[in-house]
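Sequence design from tokenized structure. All designs in this work follow the same two-part layout: the structure record, then the generated sequence. An example of the structure record is given first.
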């Protein structure tokens, strides 16, 4: 079985990457692609690497990096339309949800998928291609799969997929009611990151790394209440959504992506986590596994399925409000051994049960069933 993973990277990450790697512009598509994956952003090559270890043929496409993709087009003799003013606007974050994607993005992505001749095309972003483009993709593969744990794209886009994978239990029920085949599949942590980051000193008492979009408003309000009493070292995107007077701005250090983010987690004693609003009553985000995977004590918002993932009080700590966070932080910063015991137990649980090697075995079984 051959599977192609079609991914998009946050525009802010791509800007940061190219600021630090200007010399790569003159390199080949393959070299640029390898460097992007080596940064360990998002799911990176975590899916494909572990599936290849299981004997599958798996590749990654990062279809919204203009420099990377136009390099592929040049090397493969694909002539694309010239940029215009509209395409420049379409490339801006959020704007493409209204105006659609730039023409070069769909043109190159469709040609890459067609030439790959894969059995399965797996989209990590369900809304990145237009309805017309998705219908073309369906002709190039046996199974069109999408993954989502975020606000929904259009219903028309959703119905294009033969199968939708989600780490939101409530989304599975919703999709099935819509007549769309769907399966629950949890997120994971990639153990290789530990070796890349190496041993770090715990120099930060409390950290938070995340986004401050309107979708996170409820959780952000709780963090602001905590920050009035306890210093929180903050990294993330969407700082413009915070009030100029927000206490979270006091110790804001900018954005942190990929290996830099993992390094900060490894340097933290306590990592705060909160879920996006659409997660509802269910625990499900990358930080659950990234924080515990890096051996940090996780302090996360309580969800009804949390104990299906970790043992609350032994492998992580949950909170229900700002007061809970303040009390738990003050207590565990004084109790180093107890905090370390919980952090170690959380890491053991993640490496044993929530690693990509195991998760990809589960994904392969799901996909094989639908093929």
């Amino acid at each position: 079985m051959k599977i192609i993973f079609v991914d998009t990277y946050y525009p802010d990450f791509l800007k940061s990457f190219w600021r630090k790697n200007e010399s790569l512009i003159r390199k080949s598509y393959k070299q640029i692609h390898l460097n992007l994956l080596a940064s360990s952003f998002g799911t990176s090559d975590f899916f494909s690497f572990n599936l290849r270890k299981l004997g599958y043929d798996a590749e990654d496409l990062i279809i919204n990096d203009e420099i990377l993709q136009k390099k592929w087009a040049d090397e493969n003799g694909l002539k694309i339309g010239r940029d215009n003013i509209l395409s420049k606007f379409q490339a801006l974050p959020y704007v493409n949800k209204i105006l659609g994607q730039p023409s070069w993005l769909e043109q190159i992505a469709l040609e890459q998928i067609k030439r790959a001749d894969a059995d399965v095309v797996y989209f990590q972003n369900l809304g990145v291609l237009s309805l017309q483009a998705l219908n073309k993709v369906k002709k190039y593969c046996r199974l069109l799969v999408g993954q989502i744990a975020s606000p929904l794209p259009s219903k028309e886009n959703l119905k294009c997929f033969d199968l939708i994978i989600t780490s939101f239990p409530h989304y599975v029920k919703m999709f099935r009611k819509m007549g769309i085949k769907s399966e629950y599949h949890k997120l994971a942590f990639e153990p290789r990151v530990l070796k890349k980051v190496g041993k770090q000193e715990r120099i930060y008492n409390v950290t938070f790394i995340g986004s401050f979009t309107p979708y996170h408003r409820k959780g952000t309000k709780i963090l602001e209440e905590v920050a009035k009493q306890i210093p929180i070292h903050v990294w993330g995107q969407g700082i413009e959504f915070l009030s100029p007077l927000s206490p979270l701005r006091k110790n804001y250090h900018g954005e942190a992506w990929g290996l830099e983010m993992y390094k900060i987690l490894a340097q933290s004693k306590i990592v705060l986590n909160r879920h996006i609003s659409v997660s509802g009553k269910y625990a499900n985000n990358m930080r659950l596994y990234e924080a515990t995977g890096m051996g940090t004590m996780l302090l996360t918002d309580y969800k009804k399925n949390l104990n299906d993932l970790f043992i609350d009080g032994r492998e992580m700590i949950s909170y229900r409000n700002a007061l809970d966070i303040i009390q738990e932080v003050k207590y565990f910063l004084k109790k180093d051994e107890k905090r370390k015991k919980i952090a170690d137990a959380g890491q053991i649980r993640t490496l044993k049960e929530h690693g990509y090697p195991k998760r990809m075995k589960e994904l392969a079984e799901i996909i094989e069933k639908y093929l």
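The radius of gyration is 21 Å. We note this feature because it recurs in several other targets discussed in the main text.
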